[in-house]
């Protein structure tokens, strides 16, 4: 089983799906000749031609809208938003159109589109190359939203997204692209959408998260084990629909829950996860539900100390985990 | 010169390849749409239905365009005033009445959407929404699929001149122009975006914008059925030849208020409306048929009686049809919703 980077796993998923099904194609800015600004689509144009790895005009609403139209016809488009920060011009197409096509047509028309968008900071991207816009789309019924942390999941979930009959937003973490390296099978496997995954079994505290912060949580858990703090870690993987059963099971395991995400705290995914736990098992808890999130500022500044202040890291996560354990 | 003389002996519709039967059929759909629209206004005023959005004054261009397309294979992305278009594309008065009464059997949306939000996969009428012009990139997506899959259909999309100011119009046009896609964009310039007159909406002509996207833009009298038919037919031929999109700006006038929630006398005069009523394309087409000896007032009376009867039956059917079950509100968010779980 080859070791590969998270970004390679995403590329491999697209390549395999394009080989499997000729209606699958990728469109976006710089995805063709250049192979993507991050190299995510590198080699696809050479293999599949410039129609199936299509360089588009700089217009996100058209990238999403044209993909939606093609999907309604029966194609399986993967629309790339170069940065999730630039996704907002396409929001009307995603929320008013893609999310509602099945519902508004009473199940007559469908929209099996995938929209890929890199999220997250820590790359000196400043306000507009660092955002985590999950909460803008989260809570829009009709959309599925995936945010993988591992390279294995990135491949399996993207392949599941391409085959899904409904619109899926695939939030890939750009800091994970090169940071996360692991064994990824070359065979045709799928990771099901809507199913969370226990990354680490533990007995003292439960950490629920998705995407990059899990990297810090796993490191912190390793170190906290030496302090006899045992952390149970759940990777949501899919943030819509949330895996309620897995969330409740993980929370029950320890009775102490910390929810972590880089998106800012107010109105984030963590608020919903917290509400689910509070609704179902408040009296089984041994501590208040805690959240560690990005601060409620408009976006991440580029200046290094400011970026460091905004970003989560192993030490911040470890401290929050220890505080909860000691509660 | 001789051949020209002999051509002139043919009537215009024959020159365009339309039979007497076809032009009478066109007229029939125009009258049907007009009657439907008038009936829906009355139903709303009588409190039988909640809302109606009108297309009176726009039926001529809508029906003419539909006849110029291939109604067996093309994909249609109409906007909310296109009753004439969707009727000509195969939707029935009963279908429209089920929609306006918001009944379960409504083929457009099962009673979920406002009237005028068309959709029928069977008829290749693509489901639409209320935020205007989002359908333009969708039409481009269908045309892209045609090119990628080497299929000989075109997509046809309509919108108002107000909508032509949205980003999605420009983004869609540009994308279609870059890839020379088989899409026909028809702006139904009805002179008003609700209350805002065209001179406050446009600094130039909608048709001229096509120049910037690298394809032809044609302004046409939307009250002239045969001219609209001609330009849409030519646009379709260009598209099928692989020569790319065409933008058509059909000039017309919205004779009715924007919707049943609108009082148009707050922003325009009765005189202005009456002046435009004289230019009504439906009336003009009727006169054309009579002048060419293929239509009579007797036939007109028979047609109106027949359509009125059909309308009455459709109205009764729509009125008496069951509503969706309240809990069906929860169905069809995702695939498989509502299926019986094993």
TrEMBL record, chain A:
<keyword id="KW-0786">Thiamine pyrophosphate</keyword>
<keyword id="KW-0560">Oxidoreductase</keyword>
<dbReference type="InterPro" id="IPR009014">
    <property type="entry name" value="Transketo_C/PFOR_II"/>
</dbReference>
<dbReference type="InterPro" id="IPR029061">
    <property type="entry name" value="THDP-binding"/>
</dbReference>
<protein>
    <submittedName>
        <fullName>Alpha-ketoacid dehydrogenase subunit beta</fullName>
    </submittedName>
</protein>
<dbReference type="InterPro" id="IPR005475">
    <property type="entry name" value="Transketolase-like_Pyr-bd"/>
</dbReference>
<dbReference type="Pfam" id="PF02779">
    <property type="entry name" value="Transket_pyr"/>
</dbReference>
<dbReference type="GO" id="GO:0016491">
    <property type="term" value="F:oxidoreductase activity"/>
</dbReference>
<feature type="domain" description="Transketolase-like pyrimidine-binding">
    <location>
        <begin position="4"/>
        <end position="179"/>
    </location>
</feature>
<dbReference type="InterPro" id="IPR033248">
    <property type="entry name" value="Transketolase_C"/>
</dbReference>
<dbReference type="Pfam" id="PF02780">
    <property type="entry name" value="Transketolase_C"/>
</dbReference>
UniProtKB/TrEMBL annotation, chain B:
<keyword id="KW-0786">Thiamine pyrophosphate</keyword>
<dbReference type="InterPro" id="IPR029061">
    <property type="entry name" value="THDP-binding"/>
</dbReference>
<dbReference type="InterPro" id="IPR001017">
    <property type="entry name" value="DH_E1"/>
</dbReference>
<comment type="function">
    <text>The branched-chain alpha-keto dehydrogenase complex catalyzes the overall conversion of alpha-keto acids to acyl-CoA and CO(2). It contains multiple copies of three enzymatic components: branched-chain alpha-keto acid decarboxylase (E1), lipoamide acyltransferase (E2) and lipoamide dehydrogenase (E3).</text>
</comment>
<keyword id="KW-0560">Oxidoreductase</keyword>
<comment type="similarity">
    <text>Belongs to the BCKDHA family.</text>
</comment>
<dbReference type="InterPro" id="IPR050771">
    <property type="entry name" value="Alpha-ketoacid_DH_E1_comp"/>
</dbReference>
<dbReference type="Pfam" id="PF00676">
    <property type="entry name" value="E1_dh"/>
</dbReference>
<protein>
    <recommendedName>
        <fullName>2-oxoisovalerate dehydrogenase subunit alpha</fullName>
        <ecNumber>1.2.4.4</ecNumber>
    </recommendedName>
</protein>
<feature type="domain" description="Dehydrogenase E1 component">
    <location>
        <begin position="27"/>
        <end position="327"/>
    </location>
</feature>
<dbReference type="GO" id="GO:0003863">
    <property type="term" value="F:branched-chain 2-oxo acid dehydrogenase activity"/>
</dbReference>
<dbReference type="GO" id="GO:0009083">
    <property type="term" value="P:branched-chain amino acid catabolic process"/>
</dbReference>
């Amino acid at each position: 089983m080859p070791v590969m980077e998270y970004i390679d796993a995403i590329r491999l998923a697209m390549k395999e799906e394009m080989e499997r099904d000729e209606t699958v194609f990728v469109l976006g800015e710089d995805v063709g000749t250049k192979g993507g600004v991050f190299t995510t689509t590198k080699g696809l144009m050479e293999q599949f031609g410039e129609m199936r790895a299509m360089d588009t005009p700089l217009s996100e609403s058209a990238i999403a809208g044209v993909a939606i139209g093609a999907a309604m016809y029966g194609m399986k488009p993967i629309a790339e938003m170069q940065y999730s920060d630039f996704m907002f011009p396409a929001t009307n197409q995603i929320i008013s159109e893609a999310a509602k096509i099945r519902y508004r047509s009473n199940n007559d028309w469908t929209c099996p589109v995938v929209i890929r968008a890199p999220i997250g900071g820590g790359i000196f991207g400043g306000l507009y190359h660092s955002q985590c816009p999950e909460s803008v789309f989260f809570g829009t019924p009709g959309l599925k939203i995936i945010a993988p942390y591992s390279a294995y999941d990135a491949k399996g979930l993207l392949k599941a997204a391409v085959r899904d009959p409904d619109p899926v937003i695939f939030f890939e973490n750009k800091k994970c692209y090169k940071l996360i390296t692991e064994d990824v099978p070359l065979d045709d496997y799928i990771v099901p959408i809507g199913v969370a995954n226990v990354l680490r079994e533990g007995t003292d505290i439960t950490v629920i998260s998705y995407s990059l912060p899990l990297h810090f949580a796993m490191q912190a858990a390793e170190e906290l084990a030496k302090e006899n703090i045992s952390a149970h870690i759940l990777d949501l993987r899919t943030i819509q629909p949330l895996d309620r059963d897995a969330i409740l099971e993980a929370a029950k395991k320890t009775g102490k829950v910390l929810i972590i995400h880089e998106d800012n705290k107010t109105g984030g995914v963590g608020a919903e996860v917290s509400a689910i736990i509070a609704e179902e098992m408040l009296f089984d808890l041994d501590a208040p539900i805690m959240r560690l999130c990005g601060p409620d500022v408009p976006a991440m500044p580029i200046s290094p100390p400011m970026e460091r202040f905004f970003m989560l890291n192993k030490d911040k996560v470890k401290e929050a985990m220890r505080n909860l354990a000691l509660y | 010169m001789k051949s020209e003389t002999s051509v002139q002996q043919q009537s215009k519709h024959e020159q365009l390849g339309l039979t007497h039967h076809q032009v009478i059929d066109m007229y029939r759909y125009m009258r049907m749409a007009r009657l439907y629209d008038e009936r829906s206004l009355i139903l709303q005023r009588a409190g039988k239905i909640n809302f109606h959005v009108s297309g009176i004054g726009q039926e001529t261009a809508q029906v003419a365009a539909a006849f110029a397309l291939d109604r067996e294979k093309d994909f249609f992305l109409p906007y909310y005033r296109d009753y004439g278009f969707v009727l000509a594309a195969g939707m029935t008065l009963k279908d429209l009445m089920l929609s306006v009464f918001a009944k379960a059997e409504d083929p457009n949306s099962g009673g979920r959407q406002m009237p005028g939000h068309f959709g029928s996969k069977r008829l290749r009428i693509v489901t639409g929404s209320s935020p205007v012009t989002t359908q333009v990139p969708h039409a481009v997506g269908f045309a892209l699929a045609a090119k990628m899959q080497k299929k000989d259909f075109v997509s046809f999309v309509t919108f108002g001149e107000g909508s032509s100011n949205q980003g999605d119009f420009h983004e869609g046009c540009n994308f279609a122009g870059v890839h020379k896609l088989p899409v026909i964009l028809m702006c139904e310039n009805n002179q008003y975006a609700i209350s805002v007159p065209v001179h406050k909406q446009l600094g130039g002509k909608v048709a001229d914008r096509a120049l910037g996207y690298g394809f032809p833009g044609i302004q046409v009298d939307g009250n002239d059925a045969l001219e609209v038919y001609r330009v849409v037919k030519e646009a379709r031929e260009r598209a099928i030849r692989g020569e790319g999109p065409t933008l058509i700006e059909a000039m017309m006038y919205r004779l009715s208020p924007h919707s049943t929630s609108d009082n148009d006398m707050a922003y325009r005069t009765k005189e202005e409306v009456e002046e435009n009523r004289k230019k009504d394309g439906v009336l003009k087409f009727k006169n054309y048929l009579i002048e060419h000896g293929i239509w009579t007032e007797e036939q007109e009376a028979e047609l109106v009686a027949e359509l009125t009867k059909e309308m009455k039956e459709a109205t009764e059917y729509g009125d008496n049809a069951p509503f969706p079950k309240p809990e069906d509100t929860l169905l069809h968010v995702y695939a498989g919703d509502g299926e019986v779980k094993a």
